[in-house]
Amino acid sequence: MIDMDKLGTRRAFDKEMAFTFQVTQDVHSDELLDLLLEHHPEKWNYIRHVMMSDPVVDIVYEDRYINTPLGCILLAQFIRRIRDLFLLNFNSITISLSKKDFRVMYDDDELRLDRRFSFADHRDSFMKKCINQIICDKTRFEVKNLAHTRSIRVFNKSYDLSIMPEGGLAHGWGIENGKHSDLTTFDLSDHLDTNLHLFNRNAHRHDKAGVHYTVHFELLKEKETQF
């Protein structure tokens, strides 16, 4: 876990910043944001303090590639972690996903977490269940044709934070062999906040590149950001 009070040196940055990094470690599903905050901690510390000073936000996630139960669980847990670590209040949550059916032959009622749903409406139903159980907040869902968009935006009139994982939130992550590897959607039906053991698929491939993240943060109006 990240100790947010010890994240780097507190200092003001420019009105706009962007940075990238590769994540090569394994992780627990509910601690993915904590892992991201270990990269460029001084910048994250600044972002967090700006956002905490004006904590009512809208959040929008767009991803055409979420098609597994793991992706749905990761998204819901990631949004909850943003809320809890940054001490935010959500004015609205919007999730935009692809409407294209996946056309695979699995039993969506009892599906292993890293298997693709057969149809988009089954994915959508499971996603709503994850959001309702994990975040417990009102959420608006959009299902439409999306370009190659993979981003989560947290914003209000004062600032705009975007976190863009290459390939999508669940890209590069798999269920680690062990007690969670055989779990299904049926097993987790009432326990969707389970902190799953994940391994970094990209870090175990031949190039060991890990998962690439791009972060963009912008102040949208002048405000006091010195500490």
Based on the model shown, name its key terms.
3-stranded antiparallel sheet; single chain; 10 strands; disordered N terminus; globular; alpha+beta; 7-stranded mixed sheet; 227 residues
Model description:
By secondary structure, the chain is of the alpha+beta class. It contains 4 helices and 10 strands; from the N terminus they run E-E-H-H-E-H-E-H-E-E-E-E-E-E. The strands form 2 sheets. Strands 1-10-7-6-3-4-5 form a 7-stranded mixed sheet, with helices on one face.
Mass-distribution shape: globular
Q: Which bin fits the share of residues in helices?
A: 10-25%
Percentage of residues in DSSP E strands: 25-35%
Cα radius of gyration in angstroms: 17 Å
Number of strands: 10
Seen as an oligomer or otherwise, the chain set is: single chain
Output the helix-strand order. EEHHEHEHEEEEEE
N-to-C span = 24 Å
* Uncertain parts: 1-10
Q: Sheet with the most strands?
A: 7 strands, mixed
Judged by helices, strands and strand pairing, the structural class is alpha+beta
**Mean pLDDT across residues:** 85
Largest sheet, spatial ordering of strands? 1-10-7-6-3-4-5
Number of helices: 4
